[in-house]
Amino acid sequence: MLTVTLKVNGETRTAVVPPETTLLRMLRDQLNLTGSKLGCDVGDCGACTVIVDGKVVNSCLMLAGQAEGRDVQTIEGLATMDRVHPIQRAFEDCASLQCGFCGPGVIMSAKALLDEIPNPTIPQIRDALGGNLCRCTGYVKMIEAILIAATAMRGESAQASR
Amino acid sequence: MDKDKNPKVAEKVSPVETVLKEPGILHEPVAAPLVTYPIEVVIPKARQQTPAVGQRATRLDGRLHGLGQTGYIDDMTFPGMLYAKIRRAGVASARIKSIDTSEAEAMPGVMAVLTGKDVPNNSFGPSIKDQPVLAYERVFHAGDGIVAVAAVTEQIAAEACQKVKIEFEVLTPVLDPLESLKLETPGVHAPSANIYQKKFIKKGDVEKGFAMSDHIIEGHFTTQMVEHVPMEPHATIAMWDANGRLTVYSTLGRITLGRADLASTLGIPISRVRIVATIVGGNFGGKNEITTEPVLALLSKKTGRPVKSVFTRPDEFIASTTRHPLIMDYKTGVTKDGRIQARKLRLVLDGGAYCSWSETTLSKACILSAGPYNIENLYAEAYVVYTNKTMTGAMRGFGAPQVCFAYESHMDDIATLLNMDPLDIRLINAFHEGSISPTGQKLQSVVVKESLLRAAERFGWNPKGSTAGAGKILPKEITSGTTVRA
């Protein structure tokens, strides 16, 4: 058994897992963070997308042991007690999600994009969502929402730096 | 949204429109100039029933989806819960000679093993009850489940499945639906015939219609098997309470039907069956019937603990229902000015290993097979046949998308043959108010032609000159070259 200690959404967490456990399974089963979803378990669908040390990752392709000491951000870490994250707000306003299963993965991909490129073009958004499959929506409203969220987030950081 | 303003006249300003000040910003660069049109607020004139029409609404589940808080079945756990995996046949057609589960049962962590002989009534189905809960004597497709194992972890269950020894007598599978259609081909479900349902529509006299035609054109169309690929795989949890009542949490869509199927396969009164469904991660028809529910119920009964099973993505492709492939042969007689005189067609549906929703699909495909066109003389025959392939069942459209592909492609071919505009030929033949459908129904509220014309205007259909797909479609008014006769 492997003991893994890492930071998840700003909190230090520890879990004891068999060594072959993936980061996805550890998050869902041991750490009770079921927001990241299991869609294929082979890195094709992106439903398990999380952000590890600032980089977007298919958590089903990362071993729990590889996350030792790292900084992991999941969908559960976006909203605060004060407010829903601008990306989540935009997805809600634009009705970007239908069944919602791909949602956490898409939103994390969007977050990673906007953290790196605050003013993305549509091709850049499409590229960022390239690893996330959605069977319900057709992606158009997700792209709209990300554009709106980008504006909101630029506004927020302008406020913060004042 | 200002609630005091009269919603019928208030200007609808949505978040999207405030940010996107330039029209067409979301469109990719196109060769032709963009056609822009105002987003009109529809103010209902007649029967002004509800102020909600035309208003922007927020989906009730949007907030939880975005937060990642929506609870799907796989997100649920219960104390003492076990995990089940199913060993699948991996061969298209076979007789099962023996099943040896002793090595699997001896593995530490394995709590129960189930085969078809443990199932009280080992067959179910929405119409023909030809589908086994677990295949026991015969295998009809590679995804047939044979043995189920419940263990303390998913991994132990999967390993135990591998340790089960199954001896097959491999049989020759029937894979081609046209082969299956022939009477001399051995029955997949012998002694039942391979053609397990048929439908015929006869209107007027096709031979007379063909005699009156200037041209007769034939077309052969096929569509392929399609898998729904819902992002959320099938997931089920089963448990019993102290009063002998079964509770099943499932991604199943038709839970009333599910209760009936569980009651009949388990041999218990339907009042003892409770199914809880929740937000599903995509269905599209693939979650319309039970899959592992009876298996998990029996495993739960054997172990006295809740049992969960989630399909792997490969399971989704081989063990869940798919869209029927269709083989469609059309023969249409037209006058030289494009009026259809007669249509004769045959549909062959690949019905897979089990009936599932094939009867509904056959029915719908056949009724819609002639297309939305006035045809006085029609003969449609449709058959669904067994093959040793993945079960074909419900998928959005139930046969309608497949025949639509055929009759519309056929219409384009006829237009090409007659050197006519594809829009014109449709306007000449399309249903209008009061048209009689192939099955004798008088149609009301028919706006086919109006819709076609409005759409053509909106995206700039050029009746003369450009061929479809050339990319040089310029906005142009529709001239009166299209004389529409109701």
Description of the molecule:
With 162 residues, chain A is of the alpha+beta class. Chain A folds into two domains: 2-77, Roll (Ubiquitin-like (UB roll)); 86-157, Orthogonal Bundle (DNA polymerase, domain 1). Chain A has five helices and five strands. Chain A has helices at residues 23-30, 86-93, 103-116, 122-128, 140-160; strands spanning 2-8, 11-17, 49-52, 55-58, 71-73. Chain A has a five-stranded mixed sheet with strand order 2-1-5-3-4, with helices on both faces. In chain A, strand 1 (2-8) and strand 2 form a beta hairpin. In chain A, helix 2 (86-93) packs antiparallel against helix 5. Chain A is globular, with a radius of gyration of 16 Å. In chain A, 53% of the residues are buried. With 486 residues, chain B is an alpha+beta fold. Chain B folds into three domains: 79-170, Aldehyde oxidase/xanthine dehydrogenase, a/b hammerhead (Aldehyde Oxidoreductase, domain 3); 194-223 and 323-459, 2-Layer Sandwich (Aldehyde Oxidoreductase, domain 4), CATH 3.30.365.10; 235-319, Aldehyde Oxidoreductase, domain 4 (2-Layer Sandwich), CATH 3.30.365.10. Chain B has helices at 15-19, 62-67, 102-106, 154-163, 177-181, 206-211, 255-266, 293-303, 313-319, 358-368, 400-417, 422-429, 448-459; strands spanning 82-88, 94-100, 110-115, 138-139, 145-151, 165-170, 195-203, 215-222, 235-240, 246-250, 273-277, 307-310, 326-334, 340-350, 377-385. In chain B, the strands form three sheets. A seven-stranded mixed sheet of chain B has the order 3-5-1-12-9-10-11, with helices on both faces. In chain B, strands 7-15-14-13-8 form a five-stranded mixed sheet. In chain B, helix 7 links the parallel strand 10 and strand 11 (273-277). Chain B is globular, with a radius of gyration of 28 Å. Classes of the chains: A alpha+beta (162), B alpha+beta (486). At the A-B interface, helix 2, helix 3 and helix 5 of A face helix 1 and helix 2 of B.
